[in-house]
Amino acid sequence: MNPRRSLLALTLAVFALPALHAADYTLHTFKRIQLSDQFWCEGASFADFNNDGVNDIVSGPWWYEGPGFTNKHELYAPTTTFQLQLGPMTSVTVPGFEGALGNKNTYSDNFFAFPYDFNHDGWMDVLIIGFPGQQTVWFENPKTPDQHWTRHVIFEQTDNESPTFADLTGDGKPELVCITKGAYGYATPDWSDPAKPWTWHRISPDKGYGNFTHGMGLGDLNGDGRLDLIEKDGWWEQPASLAGDPEWKFHPGPFGLGGSQMIAYDVNGDGLPDVVTALTAHAFGLAWFEQVRTGGEITFKEHIIMNKEPRENRYGLKFTELHSLDLVDMDGDGLKDIVTGKRFWSHGRTGDPDRNMAAVAYWFQLVRGPGGSVDFVPHLIDDNSGVGTQLVVGDVNKDGLPDLVVGNKKGTFVHLHEKRTVSQAEWEKAQPKPVAAP
Questions:
Q1: What angle do CA 380, 384, 390 make, to 5 degrees?
Q2: What's the helix, strand, coil split of the chain in %, to 5?
Q3: CB–CB of 291/273 below 8 Å?
Q4: In angstroms, rounded to a whole number, what is the distance separating the alpha carbons of residues 131 and 163?
C-alpha cells in the first residue's frame, strides 16, 4: 500500500468527527446582509442604541436600526466620498480616496467600535478608537435618533493595531488597553466623570513600540486568576497588586511577526491556556501556540493551522491578511472555534501578497482527537466581505447563534448565522475534504 495513502487514511481516522445520529446532521450557514457599500471604518459592532429591545449596528459615522438595518442615523458628520474602482465592472464608495481610480490608499479614522454605557444613564454610548497614533473618543448617546452624539476626547494617542477595551484589572469595569508613546499599558476613567481625560498606567518600560505595532491580547497564561497582556514577542505578567503602577514581568515567547488579536484558550484540553493568533497581519499565517510546562517554566510550541502554501493546511486552504480574529463556539459543541478572514486591500491595490484575492471570512471548527491532537476544519462564511482590524462575533438577532459584524473597504456587513438539520448525504457533501495529512 502506498505509505502516503496509509498515513492520510490514519490521519482521517484520528480526526474523524464523533459518531452522529440522524438528528445531529446540522448545517451552519450565514445570511449575508450588506448595510452599505461605503468604506467608513475598519471595525463595526452592535448594541441596542434606541432602547427598543432590538440590536442595532454601529459602523463609522452611522448607526443602523435593527432588525432590518435599512434606517440609518448619524453619530457624527460623515466626510466626502469618492469611488474606488475594484475592477473593470465594480466599484465601492470610499471616503478620502484621491481620484476616481483610488490609486493612493487612504485610511479610515475609525478602526474600532466598542459600545458601552459610560455615563450610566441606561443608554448605550460607543467608544471609537481611531487611526493608530490618534485620539480615542467616546460618543454620548443623545437618546433621540436624529441628533449628533456628543464627542468626548478621553485619550490623546492610542497606538497598536489590536488595542482593546476590556477589564484587564479585574475590577469589573473595562479599561482601554494599548500602546502609547512606546510602552504598553492601560487607561482608566474617573467613573464619576468619564468624559474627562483618562489616566494612563504604564506596565512596560518604553521599548519604542511604534504606532503600527501589530498583535495584542489578554489572557491568564499562568493560572493565577489575573489577566496577562500578550504581544508578539512574549507576555507581560500581571502582578498581585497594581498599586503604584508597578512594571509587569516580561516573559519572552515569540508569537509570530505581529498579526491580529491574540486569544488565550485551552485548545487541546490539557488544562493549560494556549495562544491563538495570526502570524502576521499583512501576509500569511494562522497558528496556535501550545503551552508547555517544564517544572515552573512556561514555554510555547507553535502549531501551524494555515500558511503561505496550500499544503501547509490539510484542506488545501490559504489566504492572507488575517488582521482580526475571534474565538467563539460557533456550532454549540462546547469548544471555541476560530473566526477570521481577509482584510481586503489593507494597503490599497499594491503592497500586500494576494491582495486582490477574494475577501473571504471563515470559521475554523476545533475538533479534538486522541492524545491531545487537534484539527481546525475550515468552513466558508462569505467570499466578498472579509474582515477589518476588528471582527465582532455575537448574537445580533438574539436567536442563540453567533453572528458576524464587519466594517472595512468593502462596506458594512452582517452575517446572520442560520442552521438546519439535513440528511447524512447532504451533510457529508458539505464537509470540507482533507487533501493531505497535517
A1: 80
A2: 5, 40, 50
A3: yes
A4: 11
Q: What angle do CA 101, 70, 410 make, to 5 degrees?
A: 25
Residue 291's alpha-carbon distances to 263, 272, 326, in angstroms, are 13, 6, 19
Q: Which residue has the cell 504606532?
A: 211
pLDDT of 80: 52
How far is it, in rounded angstroms, from Cα 216 to Cα 208?
A: 16
Question: 7 pLDDT exceeds 50?
Answer: no
Question: Cα–Cα–Cα angle for 143, 149, 153, nearest 5°?
Answer: 130
CB 98 within 8 A of CB 106: yes
Q: CA end-to-end span of the chain, whole Å?
A: 20
Residue 4: other Cβ atoms inside 10 A? 10
Cβ distance 76 to 148 under 8 Å? Answer: yes
Query: pLDDT value at position 351?
Result: 77
Task: Report the alpha-carbon distance of residue 311 to residue 328 in Å, rounded.
Answer: 26
The answer to whether the peptide bond before residue 145 is cis (omega within 30 degrees of 0) is no
How many other C-beta atoms are found inside a 10 Å radius of the C-beta of residue 307?
16
Q: What is the pLDDT of residues 308-358, one digit of tens each?
A: 999 999 999 999 999 999 999 999 999 999 999 999 988 877 778 888 899
**Strand locations in 167-255, DSSP E?**
175-180, 183-188, 199-202, 216-219, 228-231, 234-237, 249-252
60 sits in the region (left: phi over 0; alpha: psi -120 to 50; else beta) called: left
Tell me the residue type at 278: A
The model's pLDDT over 160-210, given as tens digits with 9 standing for 90+, comes to: 999 999 999 999 999 999 999 999 999 999 999 999 999 999 999 999 999
Q: What cell numbers appear for 329 in the block?
A: 463556539
Which three cell numbers mark 56?
442595532
Q: What is the largest CA-CA distance in the chain?
A: 73
144's grid cell: 433621540
CA atoms within 13 A on the CB side of 192: 0
Cell numbers for 81, please give them: 466620498
The candidate with the shortest Cα–Cα distance to 262, out of 305, 315, 217, 300, is 217
